[in-house]
Amino acid sequence: MTIPSKLLELARPRWLSLLVIGLCLGYAITILTRVPQWMLPLLAVAWLGLGATFHWGAPGPAARPTPPRRWPWALLPIALWGLYLYLAESFGNVDLSAVFFHLQAGMADHGGVSRIGAAFLYTLSMGVLLASFTWLVRHDRRWRRGEPLLALVLLVSNPLLYGVGQRGAAIVTKPGAWLERHYVEPVLLESPRDPPNLLLLYLESIERTYADRERFGDAYAVLDQLGERGLVFEGIRQVDNTGWTMAGMIASQCGTPLMPAGLLHDRQFSPLEKVVPGVDCLGDLLSAQGYRLTYMGGASVNFAGKGLFYEGHGFDTVLGREELQPRLDDPEYVNNWGLYDDSLYDFGLEELRRLDAEEGPWGLVALSLAGHAPYGYPAQACLDRQGEFDGVDILFSVECSTWLARDFLARAEAEGLLDNTLVVVASDHLTMRVSAWEQLIEGERDNTFILLGPGIPQGRLRREAAMMDTFPTILEAMGFTIDWHRAGLGVSLLSDEPTLLEEHGAEFFNARLREEIVLQERLWEGLAPPRQEPEPEPEFLEQVVEAPEDATGEEPAAVQ
């Protein structure tokens, strides 16, 4: 049986190279735009059509080969774009602050086993792409001439390098200190006579956006029912530097976005010894009031500095995978990240009994992981209740996470462990790329934030707010009096005071995060180099305290 000549033609290096480039280009388009993935083959065919029309790589005067030592300038820019696409495909968006923080805080004992396989495939694909592009440049004079310009365009358009350059410019220029001026040191002016206990449940990636039943069915229905017993906040947006677990917890417990030490850290990417040591957080304040505090999570506390943060901010007991897994009846009943949520909540119930049996108020902070992107980790209890999991549908995992949280609260309440207790149910951040991603990004998204307990009114309250506003809100919900209803950059949502987002908008706030480092220096006081005080200006010059846009959040008026 003879192979048709046209198929043999397609197997030649020219067409193989063009096909690889076309497939990779089509894949990039589907990741960076809303073009559906089923269009990828059509995009590759269109690329091959262009190659045939312009005779790219074809033998002839335009395709005289160059010496084999000639390497294209664009290889590094293409590889950097490959890295960006990997991060974008994995997480939905690329947060350089998260990259910086995890490099310094530690990524040991993480649960990204599935992402290791994806990284291997990405690396293999990039190797094939770079080889194909090199072949094309070496065999087509037109590509060889235009390739240096292509390299420059790819380099300057890469969001990774843009973000690095922007942060570097902020460090060099040290522009205004708007964020620092709006930061309010958290101080408890008055305490309630009978301080309530605090149970703070972070539901990994379970954003309130899932409450839209037209898009997501009943996946969030359990939390909707739970919220009817308390106060549900709507409009809790995600600003920059609050979009991963540690950042979300720090925003909601310290009232400030997590601006990583990054290039301010005097030892650069050596491991951190403390996490945001320059500010007082929820644990610091409650510990000073005599609270006994515990953190529990199914994942390792060594990942992303969780243990460092809680141990350094007033928590007496910090429990993660290393401490809890040996206590399991079946130590093998774990997932890539750690304990399943049904196991975590069983241990959480034991910890509540221990705390409640001792004198004085207590606080328990727990972090679930059933909703963790990209597919979630539904527990066996959910499989028994919901049926078989297809391994992909995130809505299955969302329903599992919400049901297990409500079941835990019901069991604790039945034992009387939640008497005189403020219960807070919150998402740590908006979810990253999951199977329902296209539906999630159809409209505005917001985080879960629900208050339950004595004295908490029932209803819904819509505010334009951020996770940092939950910090003073929790304090006031517990009955503490704080200065001007503010703590950190947050404003209590139980007050009539406007939040920073209501006054200035998220776009203005995020711009300040990208341009300023003074608050960042406060967060990492002691780890960053000492703050340099500005030299006094001559008396005959009028000192400008803040630019017009700093004062109002608006652009200065144009000169007429």
From TrEMBL:
Cellular localization per UniProt: Cell membrane
Keyword Cell inner membrane listed: no
First-listed, main subcellular location of the protein, grouped into a coarse class: membrane
Its membrane topology: Multi-pass membrane protein
Record key words, sorted: Cell membrane, Membrane, Transmembrane, Transmembrane helix
Ranges where the Sulfatase N-terminal domain occurs: 196-479
Record-linked InterPro entries: Alkaline_phosphatase_core_sf (IPR017850), OpgB/LTA_synthase_biosynth (IPR050448), Sulfatase_N (IPR000917)
Spans annotated as Disordered: 527-560
TM region positions: 15-32, 38-58, 70-87, 116-137, 149-165
Family annotation (Pfam families): Sulfatase
UniProt protein name: Sulfatase-like hydrolase/transferase
Organism field: Billgrantia sulfidoxydans
